[in-house]
Amino acid sequence: MTDITPILSGSRLALSRLLTQIENDTPEGRAALNDLFPHTGQAHLIGVTGAPGTGKSSLVNRLAHFYRHPPEGQAPKRVAVAAVDPSSPFTGGAVLGDRVRMRDLAGDPGVFIRSMASRGSLGGLATATAGVVQAFDAAGYEVILIETVGAGQAEVDIARLAHTTLVVEAPGLGDDIQAIKAGILEIADILVINKADRPGVEHTERALKGMLSLAHPVQRVFHHGQMMEVQTGAAQPEGPMWIPPIQKTVATEGEGIPELAEAIAEHRVYLQTSGDWERRERARLQSELFQLLQSTLVTRWQATVSDARYRQTIDRLLEREISPREAVDALLNGNG
Amino acid sequence: MTDITPILSGSRLALSRLLTQIENDTPEGRAALNDLFPHTGQAHLIGVTGAPGTGKSSLVNRLAHFYRHPPEGQAPKRVAVAAVDPSSPFTGGAVLGDRVRMRDLAGDPGVFIRSMASRGSLGGLATATAGVVQAFDAAGYEVILIETVGAGQAEVDIARLAHTTLVVEAPGLGDDIQAIKAGILEIADILVINKADRPGVEHTERALKGMLSLAHPVQRVFHHGQMMEVQTGAAQPEGPMWIPPIQKTVATEGEGIPELAEAIAEHRVYLQTSGDWERRERARLQSELFQLLQSTLVTRWQATVSDARYRQTIDRLLEREISPREAVDALLNGNG
């Protein structure tokens, strides 16, 4: 058993050890997560995703720095970062080219940064990320930034963990690239154009606006916490609504960061007043429950079937004596 | 029951209807796949993946055209294309901007093109793609091109279906973009630089070569069908080996297509002489079996639990009375 007291009282060493256990899915890690769970639910989970080359890591660094050193009158917040790289499933090694973090973050006890890479299974990575985020939450980190590389299903799954999702773009990545972003745009609560000092920023902004209206020929609005579609020109629904704003930043210079933090804060207020916060919590926990159910069912089933029988079934499949579905039926019904 | 005779005898209408049933995972679709399975295993499955904007669709069109109109002395082959778009999980609609196919392909009875989009679950898409590919195979298509958009786990899962995987690059997509390709490079059997008439092609080629050597500081070689790593300068192993070649194409002009087709043919010979063909078949069918097992286990379990009990468990989870893993234990052990 892992004693969770040191985690709750803020020991970085205990937290770091626990994160390793969570990533390796050990019995100790699982037991600790069970014990820590009642202490979760306080943090604001912020997903940051987008194509490579958009400067997500710098942006995350600057946001973390902002929360640690807020404008006068605001209290600094404890910040944790989970930097997830699902792009390299074969090596198991993270291809995190820009993992070099700002020096003042590295020495700050109110900041905890963890890099995670896929270890073969994507489901495993999403589950591990959920566990790591819960550990941060229980350990009292008030803001948790979940950073993912790329723009595929993996990012979407991980973005589902967040309350507020930032989709980061940058000028000059080519029109072609942007042409497929419609899918990822749909998960965006806030659109960020980073590297906004580069040529072509107006073009990117126009493209994003165009794509938003193209992807949503009707305007997406939030009404009483539910996404609704309203024909442009139609009467607006009553109650709060959220239209993803476009924020411009130059993360390397710190430009636009206070405004971005302000948009994030506004989104949090929106979530809480609209009832979306609870709805997202429910969706998030349901999704995590389903992932765990699935992997547990497979693990339990695997314990009931012998390697010899499994191999024999594979052989019959390879000989094309039985189809994949017939093989499944044979294995599950015990007549294989 | 779906009568498979029309499929085997080449009816496009019957095939088209079956593909819809496979995509919707109907009992008829499943039964037909069982019956068709003994007729599969003849086709050469070619995966084509890479970032958006690299011109994959044009390349696939040109390859299909080449196989239909080969150089004198070679027989034309029947070609099927499964164009898979996992990038838009929320709408369920394909964002296939360049789905406009060449006119001469559209009218050719020896070509069958099917566009597929994600419908929420990625596992579902991989399973559906596997089924569609099996239907093409049984229907006598000799070359099956599996085209995917993007560069994430989804593409990797779908690429696992192929015997030969082409990873497509293009000049001018930015150095940053390329910096994450190490993961996807690992699945490449052949690297294609499309749009090779664009400025920067030498740079892209240099970058790819550099990345290959960076990602693999030792040279990757195939030896008796297994991937081995050999320190550069060390003695070469005996037997066949495969080092991913870099092929330059201008798909819109048809340039480099015969050479690319030649490289694909060489890879096929390599697979067959090295024993890798069988090994990949085994891995492919095992992976498909596992996906099916997982979804079947979940479906069977779902039939045993009442909605009320599931909702009640979710509620306790939301109240943080129990952790996600405790919720799973409760649901699976019947004491929830």
Notes on the structure:
The structure is a homodimer of 336-residue chains. Chain A is α/β, with parallel strands linked by helices and 336 residues long. Chain A has 2 domains: 40-280, P-loop containing nucleotide triphosphate hydrolases (Rossmann fold, 3-Layer(aba) Sandwich), CATH 3.40.50.300; 305-333. The first copy, chain A, is 47% helix and 15% strand. Chain A has 14 helices and 9 strands. Chain A has helices spanning 5-8, 12-23, 27-36, 56-68, 103-106, 122-138, 153-159, 175-178, 182-185, 201-215, 257-274, 276-302, 307-318, 324-333, and strands at 44-50, 79-85, 111-117, 143-148, 164-169, 190-193, 219-223, 226-230, 246-248. In chain A, the strands form 2 sheets. Chain A has a 7-stranded parallel beta sheet with strand order 3-2-4-1-5-6-9, with helices on both faces. Chain A has a two-stranded antiparallel ribbon with strand order 7-8. In chain A, strand 2, helix 5 (103-106) and strand 3 (111-117) form a beta-alpha-beta unit. In chain A, helix 2 packs across helix 3, helix 6 packs across helix 12 (276-302) and helix 13 (307-318) packs antiparallel against helix 14. Chain A starts with a helix and ends with a helix. Mean pLDDT of chain A is 81; it is low at 88-100, 175-180 and 216-237. The interface between A and B is large, with 74 and 74 residues.
